[in-house]
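Entry for the shared binder. Reason: the reviewer on the internal report wants the predicted structure included alongside the sequence.
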Amino acid sequence: MRRDSGISVVAVVAVLAVLAAGGAGYFAWRNMVQLDRLQSELNTTRSGLDKARADLRKAAQDVAAASKEAKDLKVATERLSGERDAVRASMENEQATGVRLRAELALAKDQVSYLSARSSKDVVRGMPRTPASQ
């Protein structure tokens, strides 16, 4: 019986060892499956991150281009505003000159009228009535 007992103990220990190895194998397999799933999620996350980085670089380039264009437009606006102001000042000067010349012409007409009323008719007949063409 002792011998049967020894074989039984060895058989029990062997069965327990097989069960322990099977359990360890199951846990190792489960960990491998979980590791593969996590690796897949990591790869997906990395590709998403790479895409986000590329989109960020493109957006930064677009912002830089838009900023340069805005600066160019600001310079052009300032230049055109300066030209507009210069034209406005020139027009105001020309209008003032026109007013002054009309006043001088009216004065000259009044003077000619006054002088022609005071002088003899022979002198008045010889005065030119239209401006001389040049």
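Summary line for the report: The chain has two helices and no strands.
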